[in-house]
Structure formats: C-alpha cells, structure tokens
Amino acid sequence: MENDREYKFLLDKIMRNTNIDFGEYRPQLLKRRVLHRLHVAECDSYWDYISLLNKELSEYDKLIEALTIKESYFFRDTNVFEFLKNEIVPEIIYQKQVDGSNEIRVWSCGMGHGQEAYSVAILLCEALGDEIKKFDIKISATDIDKDALEKAPWGSYDKRALRNLSPHLLFKYFTRVQDRYVVSDRVRVLVDFHRHDIVSGLAKRGMDLVLCRNLLIYFEKGLQEKVVRNLHSALNPGGFLILGKSETLPERIRSHFEIIDLAERVYREKTTLSVRT
C-alpha cells in the first residue's frame, strides 16, 4: 500500500536525521502518535509531512516530543517510592558501607521532565542527612527529547507536578517563584541530564539503581529483551531495577534477576552480597 511505503520512508528519514530508530516500537501506538503530529502540523499525508521536515528542521524536535511520554509528577506511584525509601535506599547505603565506597549511581531512563530523578535525589537527601557530604552521588537522567532535556535542569514545575509531595518536603526542597516551584540547588546538583537513546545508545555501567518505568510497553518483544539486557549490564552486582507497573521482564533474561517485589516491579541483579540486618 502507498501509505505503508510513505510511512516506512518517514521512519527511515527520522532515523537518518536523528539517529533514533522507531522501527521496533509498537506499530499501532507509534503510528497513532505520528498521525496526531501530522494533524497538528496541518499535513494531509505522510509526503506532506516529509516535505515539512525538509523545510523546517525544528519539526524533528517537535515530532520526537510527540512520540515520547512526558506527563509525570514527583513521587509518581506512591508505593514504589515508599519501597525505595524503606528498602532500596537503605540497602544501597548499607552496601556502600560494607564495600567501603562512597559512590552512589542511579539512572533514570526516559526521565520526562526530571520529576523521577529529582524524587530519587530527595529520598537520598532525606536518608543521608548531613552525611550526604561524605558521598559522591550522581543521578543520570536521560531522554531523547531535546525540549525536555533543556527544561529539566531548571527544576521549575507547576503545582500539579507536586501533588504527591508532603508539605514538609515541599517546604524543605522547593522555593516558590510566582506560580512555579523550583527545586533547591542541593537536590539539582545531584542530577545530571543528558541525551541518551536507550535503544541504540551504548549501555551505561556502574549503576546501583536503574529506573526504567513505562518505556518497555512501547517496544516490540525483541526490542524489550535488547533494552533489558542493556539495563542489566548497566547494573552493579546486586543493583536494583524498577520497571513500570504494566511491564515484566522478558522471559529469556529473567534468570539474571531476583524478584524483590513483583507488584511494584522491583528486581535485583543476581549476585550474592552481604545481607543487611
């Protein structure tokens, strides 16, 4: 069909010009988002939209933004962050004490506008208190959306993004500026934002915790396995992986992980470590 050829040509063009391969994303979901962008751009066909891309390179950024999910808020999925606060963060700190290390590394994949990464940073600030000065903490927050990567480092949010924050945390870690709330410097300094394509980019290394929530649902099964293998290779021995509530580990890689909390999709890289008492 002509439309299918046009659509494939469009995806190939996107890959050539952005190095982002959407070929193994779930077709129906991807096509629905592409068509929505065509409608917004007032293009009647894929060829019309391809012509627009040829004339306006900035349209690529708008398209990438349309193809990625950005609606989020601080401490989204309360149970997950309660588990992080009560179980995972204390365990990571304990292992660092056992190993005599002061490095804590976290990776927030598909970070949206940074709420997830900043939420983890707040948990670490709360858990360590004044002891945080003794630690070398780096939270890598990555995405493919240029607009999100430009906005997130400012740490400025509307009240809706803070709806899960307690008054205590809001007062302690945010400053109100007119109708916006800005993350404090002591939280922002812990987070590094940069572009990274989880599909085609090189896997990271040395992570104590990886959060990859609600990304796998957009990928075909083969790509899901590839991505999770990359996430596994990014983890330190005994490192933690958290997926989205509707996501599961691909069958062929499940043996590499221990299930910590299936309901919250918390897994741990299978390596024998000292047990916290």
Structure, described:
The structure is a single chain. This protein is an alpha/beta fold and 277 residues long. It folds into two domains: 2-67, Chemotaxis Receptor Methyltransferase Cher, domain 1 (Orthogonal Bundle), CATH 1.10.155; 78-269, 3-Layer(aba) Sandwich (Rossmann fold). The chain contains ten helices and ten strands. The chain has helices spanning 2-18, 27-40, 46-55, 58-67, 78-99, 115-128, 146-151, 167-173, 185-188, 221-234; strands at 103-109, 136-143, 156-157, 174-177, 180-183, 191-195, 207-212, 235-243, 257-261, 266-269. A seven-stranded mixed β-sheet has the order 6-2-1-7-8-10-9. Helix 6 (115-128) links the parallel strand 1 (103-109) and strand 2 (136-143). It starts with a helix and ends in an 8-residue tail after the last strand. The mean pLDDT is 89.
Summarize it.
By secondary structure, the chain is α/β, with parallel strands linked by helices. It contains 10 helices and 10 strands.
List keywords for this structure.
single chain, 277 residues, alpha/beta, Chemotaxis Receptor Methyltransferase Cher, domain 1, Rossmann fold, seven-stranded mixed β-sheet, three-stranded antiparallel β-sheet, 10 helices, globular
Low-confidence stretches: none
Radius of gyration, whole Å: 20 Å
Give the oligomeric state.
single chain
* SSE string, helices as H and strands as E: HHHHHEHEHEHEEHEEHEEE
CATH architectural label of the largest domain: 3-Layer(aba) Sandwich
- Note the main sheet: 7 strands, mixed
Shape: globular
Strand content: 15-25%
Number of strands: 10
The total domain count is 2
Please tally the helical runs, counting DSSP H or I stretches of 4 or more residues: 10
CATH superfamily of the largest domain: Vaccinia Virus protein VP39
Give the class-level CATH name of the largest domain. Answer: Alpha Beta
In the sheet with the most strands, the strands line up as 6-2-1-7-8-10-9
Fold-level CATH name of the largest domain: Rossmann fold
Average pLDDT taken over every residue: 89
Percent in helix: 40-55%
**Span between N and C termini?**
63 Å
User: What class, by secondary structure content?
Assistant: alpha/beta
